[in-house]
Amino acid sequence: MQYTDKLSEHYHSLLSGKYDCIDRITLNAYFPMLTMPGGVRCWYRELTGSDKGLDTHKLISFAGTFSKRVQSYCKSNNIPFHHYKSGERKHEDAEALIPADKSFTGIFAIFCCRASSRLWEVTTFGQGKIDIHKKKEYSLVNHYYIHIMDVEWGHICIRICAHPPFACLIMLNGHEWVERHKKTGELNVTKEGNCFTSYTDGKKLSKIADNLKKQGHLDKVCQRWVYQCLWFALDYEEQTRSRFKYKFSVYQVEYSRNLLFNTGRKLDNVYQNLITLTRERLDISRLKTIFGLKRGPYKCTNPSAPEVRIQTPEYNLTIFKIHFGKLTVKLYDKGERTLRAEVVVHNTKALGCKRGVEFFEEIITKLQELIKSFLDNMEYAHAALIDDGAVDKLTTPSVKGKNRQAGIDLCNKRNIAVMQVIMALSIKPRGFSVAEVVAQMKELHNKKYSIANARYDLRKMKSKKLIEKIKGKRNNKVTPVGLKTIASIICLWTDKLPSFLSLVNSTEEITQQKKELTEMEKCMFNAKSEFEHLINIYGIKRAA
């Protein structure tokens, strides 16, 4: 595994295996010529030989042809054809219709649903002159979901719009591809849903899955099926005559790292403890929702802001989600013994790289770096520590060049608040900016906090090497040692230490007979008696 992470290394003794795999992939298929007004005219000339008859009704007639051919094809081949309302889930129904014959390949179901799309409109004026433009408003038109069984990929789905430019979405699954690979059978894999829950060699399984990112695999499956779906609008002779040629780009990708624990009990203990600790140290006020249903709210008023969720569906699956605009990272238990970390890019434009299928390897490399960074930061926040003398180093002044930087006063509320914000932003991909620190401080702690305050506070953090600037960028990132130190300080100074001191100063005696104590409360009550003994030795008197 090329990109090992700290969390996997931390729990290595509890694991029986681990593997990386590409999950769901969504590709865009588009014909560049039909994305421009002049291209529409040129394509129509190639198709018919002239501009005669080019109008809005002619373009709409392609959708009618598509519908007739689809329904006729389904009747003659006894293929299920269903209409759905917008928003209805169709994938589960399609999975129920998958043929029992494992050697079957081809179309096995077609669904129709209305979705929004911008259509071409042709306006005639003057002496037969025409103007081709897109409608200002989106139109609800039929989109067809063509479900196919492929030899290499298993179940794939192609969603195609019946109107020009016949844009397609091609939906695939990397786990299906790995399962059908000829070398996978040697590893005795057991697959449950979208996950391998048992295997003999995780390293070999990861190598097989890593081959998927190489050039050619995605392009071959697209070329194999997309023109057969286009046949419902343009037959093969019309496709050749009009020189219709799709190009493919990567739209959405999911990449996961799966940790297989020795027993389900160990997984449950580790994961619940991990969620509890990181949830507190990532700032509890930043938890967007805690709910127990499988589905949550879909709309977000500020999609660019980080969003953290703890989701517990009805089937006892706990999901820890963090949203950063078009990127999402998740940590959840899958099956009885698998802990899955997953990064989802909802639009590959957010990665800042080229999106053609020929650049798929570069996209996956970026996702591997993100999953490693996410798990590293989760481990740093989870296994927090303070080195010997670290507190003294933080509080003493430091010199950077000719400038003297003040120390970090841990009794200062603003310093602690800044640490909490930095902790919450530490898992943000590609670091965080000064403006983001200011926005979070104003939202959570101090409305009068300014950019000048943030720059001053971050300079102090940099002088103590808690954070560092990312090379070639304006953003900052938290160092591994800094993240562990900040997590420990937040835990002790803002939560456990005040509650412990209030307990020590309390004269009320609470026994186990009065209430059932948690493990944390038992430890604190035991520490109280020892601490009181220490107070008597040093002769310290408690305040009245």
Structure summary:
It is built from 16 helices and 20 strands. It has helices at residues 6-10, 37-48, 56-77, 91-96, 174-180, 202-210, 217-230, 236-241, 264-281, 360-382, 390-395, 413-425, 434-444, 451-463, 480-505, 519-538; strands at residues 15-30, 81-84, 106-117, 120-125, 129-134, 139-150, 154-161, 168-173, 190-191, 196-198, 247-261, 287-291, 306-311, 319-324, 327-334, 338-345, 398-400, 403-405, 467-469, 476-478.
Secondary structure: elements and pairs:
Layout: H1 6-10, E1 15-30, H2 37-48, H3 56-77, E2 81-84, H4 91-96, E3 106-117, E4 120-125, E5 129-134, E6 139-150, E7 154-161, E8 168-173, H5 174-180, E9 190-191, E10 196-198, H6 202-210, H7 217-230, H8 236-241, E11 247-261, H9 264-281, E12 287-291, E13 306-311, E14 319-324, E15 327-334, E16 338-345, H10 360-382, H11 390-395, E17 398-400, E18 403-405, H12 413-425, H13 434-444, H14 451-463, E19 467-469, E20 476-478, H15 480-505, H16 519-538
Parallel strand pairs: 2-3, 12-13
Antiparallel strand pairs: 1-8, 1-11, 3-6, 4-5, 6-7, 7-8, 9-10, 11-16, 13-14, 14-15, 15-16, 17-18, 19-20
Helix pairs in contact: 10-15, 12-13, 12-15, 13-14
